[in-house]
């Protein structure tokens, strides 16, 4: 088929199964947008800011398990994708970013809208291509999709000079190529792991996002149920194991539950699956899980023994590893004393919160009710901060992929565009973005995209009038000196209801406990456009439990000044 | 600091060397010497590098991080010595 580089690009994207591109045109990517107009297989969603395109591609990828695609022009269009690329790199999200570049003849001359996006993104992409021959475009796209999805998923950049897009070329579909198969799971290591399980007395499954990415949630449920071993799910793994399951102790880490943190600290065996011993989970490393032997399974060998030495390293896809463990773990220790201890903590230190003394709405209550009324079949996204932690703590997740948030990079403003992408990928599900008033002001322009493109997401702004998590740290560690954390959103600047309406959405406000259920129910009945609910909540609510940064997990505070593990010694 | 000598087989793609060097920079590796030479295989270069790492940073971790770069066909540790 005789075409152009741009035609080959669109045909190659169709051939690898791309069904939607989130993007925005501009000078250097103009040729690619021309054949896109004729594509019947690919929907293009015109965003209002390229960052929104990148996070939408992430939301789509996380909701569907497929590769998300975003597109932007050269220079500022490409640099606006830097944050989503870094985010996808940290959280192992498979996305492909296609960027325009200035023509080959002027690369390196500081041409208009020239930026060396390949070099800029070197440390935050899994791989990148700059295609200089139009005949190479199909192979670059096929490779980019394969690299993004295989092994540990991640972002891949494809940079296309404008004249390469315009050049005539004959379209030849790229060969699928020899992709790296999953590493074969070592049976010797799996047997060693099984032996450690058999002789342990206080084992725990420490479950990370890899279990979701590899589609291993069902296999984990089987293994956990059969062995009776306690389970904790990290921020990236919320939903990998049902919250309703009696063996689930919740989320570990800085804002984890007391029983989940205690399970890691008091364990004699950690079975770490698809997780990377992040500092937000481990706290001070020398004080983390001091008595535990470690079985660490991950598809990325570079993560094993990075932060904590593994006694039994297992390189492999989590689904393969868990299936192998299921076949060989036969001897199961008596866990009664271990469960007695953990259940005691569960009874004494359940998640809980106080109502603000001034009669304001409790943010945790809003999220609890949202979880109850929207249910486990909905998809929840969040930004970053207090509302994110409450969304992790108080929404009851029952299935993988139902919580999409920015864990590693901690990108404020992630919720709205990620919800947009998730809704495009899962049109039959209700998608709730749980957002903060600070985060919402960073990316709410994508609500225009949602309104115009018919993407009916719902946004719950947990509006505490402040950059809440920063304010919490100022309360705890800076003697209540609130430097630059007040956002004035409680003074209705901006007025989120009016803003929502201006952006083409339905807007509601809720300030009183008695209205919470009614407003959520009403928001759920709006299906023809996006909905924004401004939940005006108290500004002093804090996220508990908490392990202060840099301290050991034993110093977890169930509430300010209450250290259940420290005091039990 | 401990001194390590690594040898890499690197695909001759544009940006391949930059990716390796950026990894050294972003992971806090001190590079003492670095040499890139052609091999008998077309399209593949050999990169020899001598670097320094603090004693608590195992070189195996760095070798694995290099190994996951797509343009790195092979990364091996040739020798190490405590400095």
From TrEMBL, chain A:
Annotated GO MF terms: acetolactate synthase activity; flavin adenine dinucleotide binding; magnesium ion binding; thiamine pyrophosphate binding
Pathway the protein takes part in: Amino-acid biosynthesis; L-isoleucine biosynthesis; L-isoleucine from 2-oxobutanoate: step 1/4; Amino-acid biosynthesis; L-valine biosynthesis; L-valine from pyruvate: step 1/4
Cofactor: Mg(2+); thiamine diphosphate
Thiamine pyrophosphate enzyme N-terminal TPP-binding domain sequence ranges: 4-117
Gene3D superfamilies reported in the protein's UniProt record: 3.40.50.970, TPP-binding domain
Record keyword Amino-acid biosynthesis present: yes
Domain (Thiamine pyrophosphate enzyme central) ranges: 190-325
EC number(s) from the headed UniProt entry: 2.2.1.6
EC category name: transferase
Cofactor binding, per record: Binds 1 Mg(2+) ion per subunit. Binds 1 thiamine pyrophosphate per subunit.
The protein's name: Acetolactate synthase
